[in-house]
């Protein structure tokens, strides 16, 4: 396989580190550079101990970045915007894992990120890198914007239902159980282990930024309300959504909507079992994998539909779907480097 | 203090064990007997290792039960009904921790418990032992029915809002993060540690039995939908509810509704801070205590109100509020034996 | 009961916060002041959320400290030494929870703390506040030095064996499983939840400072080697020690040594069961309590004796035994304010 | 690659399930059959939810087993012995993950397993499948006995030191922190989540069976004492060993002993860092991988050497080293199918 070079900007964080891990195991990629201002000069395994013995790469300062076939940006939100032209020039394909270019609507960006987007004219040039929704666009895109982890969990679970027109036009309530890795690698009092362990912290009761991505990518821009609760898992998201089925539709139609949408998808599994210990999606099962598991339960007498999804926020929620999109873009098998099945137990 | 005798039926389970623990530390109670069919003859500390050195009580078989001032029943749902008359005759005050006599409406019982109540005429004779709602009735009740843990978490959080008429007449969606102790002391494949640890199991997406208690005790029998997710905490419940405020009401009115309802309550705290690590209710903070912490967040532009509560399912959710009710019934200080403040960290 | 005033220096840390919690529930103590430089002016419950609704105390800066009957110092090691005279003058009884005055031998201090003790002549004036070893001295002491948590776990487990002369004169190897709260309230990269959760970190393979306390307080200053491993429990210590019984002694003699030493002790339990789930000491069982549970297993054919102990590092390991010593000093019942039995499950 | 057929006996357990997971991802293996008496007829993913969408295999009853190139036995200890001839006839290469054929010395077997070995004459025909120790023998072996997980952790950490003759002839004390998956898939009161979570259970203070494997495979059959403590991790082992270096040897010699022994080993990493958060082996880092990380710390003034190792009990401890041995036996690259690097965080 003809290897493409890839450089990772912001490789000491969890998103960048996860992309690095996946890229090192990918037969089509050759990681040439990984930047970190703070850890410049150190072996990457000082920060990511799982990579000990897997690579002799050292972090370089961002100033030393050289052009590569693919540039992956794993910077805090907004940092890319400050050096937009420079980074854009350093990769034939640029894949941004931050929120900077996920949205198409500048008004939504301003509402959720608190300031006008500095390059609104650039927004249409980026493709939202969710393979299940935008596979065709991804094939030819040179600017790929990775989706938010909570947005991925919510969007992929709800999309087939909206596309098939099964839901009543009422607000959908989404509760997201998220993980401590979602807050990033930066330590502070809020992540101090004795305080954080065992704590279930209502992190965003209202106003979650990923709402913008969800709403913008669902047909008809429905009213969707997100509440995020940070538990003390290290990885994983469990999403539950509350909606109502339109009269006349049944569980069978819901099944069919998911099958039509995802029947051919390599990383979406519909999980709705009558027996076994893991009858519905569970973050434990998908930990470390690129799967999103989706299930649902219909309350027959009220039409209430509870939709459930689970994924690993750092894999399918971030670095995994980004690599999946890259596989599509490069014409490689879509599952390449993403076939880890997860553990039991 | 003049001690009252108390006998506990079903003392090897978690609810009975917790009541036993609290009763042993209560200056007004003398535990005379604790039954367990399986562990008859064994010291109670064989099952409840925290009680080693605290009591020399042994479990007795239920047949050897003798009359006591207070009989506490901590049996699986339905077991009390099978020997109703017998148990009723063994205590001047009978306190049942099961679901057998929580409801007033036989139709609700049948809907949620799948069979007609065998003694529907007895239902009105029982008082639902939630002090914050029924303190006056509890003072003179000889038959007290402890509330469900999830019902307590939901009911106490929503009651003031319904009482004050602040909410739009739309369905309220409740998501409950529950614990593994809620499933009881009986081991099985579903509770096997390697399978259960790290698992977030959607336990009841729809049809949760505690819905009946919630609906019956809220003014106007509103439409409330419960979804319960069992995380791998051992104790604790975090409840979030999604509702909409009626036009014209503000955050201030919500505050006032809670203050009016709970301003004098010894075990309800309103938690809504602008700083600190624990700004909203958190099961970590209330673990082991008889507190229910309640908070809320209002989304100004939509009127969406997210209500949050946290409690320990075995204390405030079960044995603690039962003992609180007993304190009221006996004319003792309401906080007697319930003053444990919880840990940090 | 005639209340004594108590002021706590360094009350925002975990040791100080735990003493504060215990003191607030103690009928003989009135907490008058709690210092914290960083949180001066804030309610103590901002830092210790368990104390919400239990006290309206606010932190004061250390400069505003006024005299009290009892002064409790919960400062980082060495901080007391910098203002020794001043603090000494602020309490009739001074109780120091740091390592500054635990040792009698200045050489041991220098070896383990890396510098000469600045007030070696003061060391004999302090009483090592371990009730089981020094109860009589504590009764009249005005200067009490709380023991280290790991030292307490090790010392109390080994003391009866050395006193009874049961062990061969060979090195004893001690492995301590410790908790994340042991590292204190200060956040940093090493305590960042995603890094720390699930991690078993060999924290001190050799050279643990508490070795000094152990060796100094065991008859004959035996050779004891400590290895401390920090797991991701928040609280608790599990100690195992490896020793060899002298020829001629049996399990029965070990039992007797413990019974003689601790038969009357209110907070020491010998745990060595043939059935049940908790046959040996377990930090889960003693969490939040002032108990130290001690057990042992003898390998008949080799004479190897494995000694096991468990305690809560913040209670029996720090604030609890300090309060127990204070109870002794004040002539109060020794268990006053320390009767929490712990949870199950 | 020419695929070999493999059948797995006892595939519903954790060891068998882990081998199945690895085998499904191995390009040289084709899993033809998986047996489970209890789950015969069910899809394997009912029991191992991580395998959903990865295979359509169903469990078969052991009676339906057919010959395969490789037969992997993952049965409870002793079960293989009951049908020895039959199973032996079903695979050209037989790989047994139980303890039935790990030992060479029948006396050691009888001492630790409590009965004489029924086929002592067969013991020499089996090769102990630890690649680092017996690679050459494995190349031609048709009967491979997988090592115990705790034995692997201990043996590989100590072997180089004994081989190089660096240790004093004194007993070595080994403390093993083990996991709940080590007790297998069978549920029961001892593994009930509310009881097990947070519990640190001294599981084998003395008499651990893996002692036999350790002693038999170390030069000179030294005196090694094992104590196993089951924490509530699901996977992983952290081993610490306490020994004394002979006079004249230094840290440098220890380094060299490890380098000589493992310098070319693909799955052994020496971890001894001066900076970073993971300075010594940590089960968190190796979770899911086939690595064993080994480190050490020397106490200069006493010569005490603390040796530390970490591995995943189900991978390097069981199924992973078994597959590694199989790779060697089949002439495949030794790391084939075993290249998962583990997670961070």
TrEMBL record, chains A, B, C, D:
<dbReference type="InterPro" id="IPR000534">
    <property type="entry name" value="Semialdehyde_DH_NAD-bd"/>
</dbReference>
<comment type="function">
    <text>Catalyzes the NADPH-dependent reduction of [LysW]-aminoadipate 6-phosphate to yield [LysW]-aminoadipate 6-semialdehyde.</text>
</comment>
<dbReference type="Pfam" id="PF22698">
    <property type="entry name" value="Semialdhyde_dhC_1"/>
</dbReference>
<comment type="pathway">
    <text>Amino-acid biosynthesis; L-lysine biosynthesis via AAA pathway; L-lysine from L-alpha-aminoadipate (Thermus route): step 3/5.</text>
</comment>
<keyword id="KW-0028">Amino-acid biosynthesis</keyword>
<dbReference type="GO" id="GO:0019878">
    <property type="term" value="P:lysine biosynthetic process via aminoadipic acid"/>
</dbReference>
<keyword id="KW-0521">NADP</keyword>
<dbReference type="GO" id="GO:0006526">
    <property type="term" value="P:L-arginine biosynthetic process"/>
</dbReference>
<dbReference type="Pfam" id="PF01118">
    <property type="entry name" value="Semialdhyde_dh"/>
</dbReference>
<feature type="binding site">
    <location>
        <begin position="12"/>
        <end position="15"/>
    </location>
    <ligand>
        <name>NADP(+)</name>
    </ligand>
</feature>
<dbReference type="GO" id="GO:0043870">
    <property type="term" value="F:N-acetyl-gamma-aminoadipyl-phosphate reductase activity"/>
</dbReference>
<dbReference type="InterPro" id="IPR050085">
    <property type="entry name" value="AGPR"/>
</dbReference>
<dbReference type="InterPro" id="IPR037535">
    <property type="entry name" value="LysY"/>
</dbReference>
<dbReference type="GO" id="GO:0003942">
    <property type="term" value="F:N-acetyl-gamma-glutamyl-phosphate reductase activity"/>
</dbReference>
<dbReference type="InterPro" id="IPR036291">
    <property type="entry name" value="NAD(P)-bd_dom_sf"/>
</dbReference>
<dbReference type="GO" id="GO:0051287">
    <property type="term" value="F:NAD binding"/>
</dbReference>
<feature type="binding site">
    <location>
        <position position="313"/>
    </location>
    <ligand>
        <name>NADP(+)</name>
    </ligand>
</feature>
<keyword id="KW-0560">Oxidoreductase</keyword>
<feature type="domain" description="Semialdehyde dehydrogenase NAD-binding">
    <location>
        <begin position="5"/>
        <end position="141"/>
    </location>
</feature>
<dbReference type="InterPro" id="IPR058924">
    <property type="entry name" value="AGPR_dimerisation_dom"/>
</dbReference>
<dbReference type="InterPro" id="IPR000706">
    <property type="entry name" value="AGPR_type-1"/>
</dbReference>
<dbReference type="GO" id="GO:0070401">
    <property type="term" value="F:NADP+ binding"/>
</dbReference>
<dbReference type="GO" id="GO:0005737">
    <property type="term" value="C:cytoplasm"/>
</dbReference>
<keyword id="KW-0963">Cytoplasm</keyword>
<keyword id="KW-0457">Lysine biosynthesis</keyword>
<feature type="binding site">
    <location>
        <begin position="36"/>
        <end position="38"/>
    </location>
    <ligand>
        <name>NADP(+)</name>
    </ligand>
</feature>
<comment type="similarity">
    <text>Belongs to the NAGSA dehydrogenase family. Type 1 subfamily. LysY sub-subfamily.</text>
</comment>
<protein>
    <recommendedName>
        <fullName>[LysW]-L-2-aminoadipate 6-phosphate reductase</fullName>
        <ecNumber>1.2.1.103</ecNumber>
    </recommendedName>
</protein>
<dbReference type="InterPro" id="IPR023013">
    <property type="entry name" value="AGPR_AS"/>
</dbReference>
<feature type="active site">
    <location>
        <position position="149"/>
    </location>
</feature>
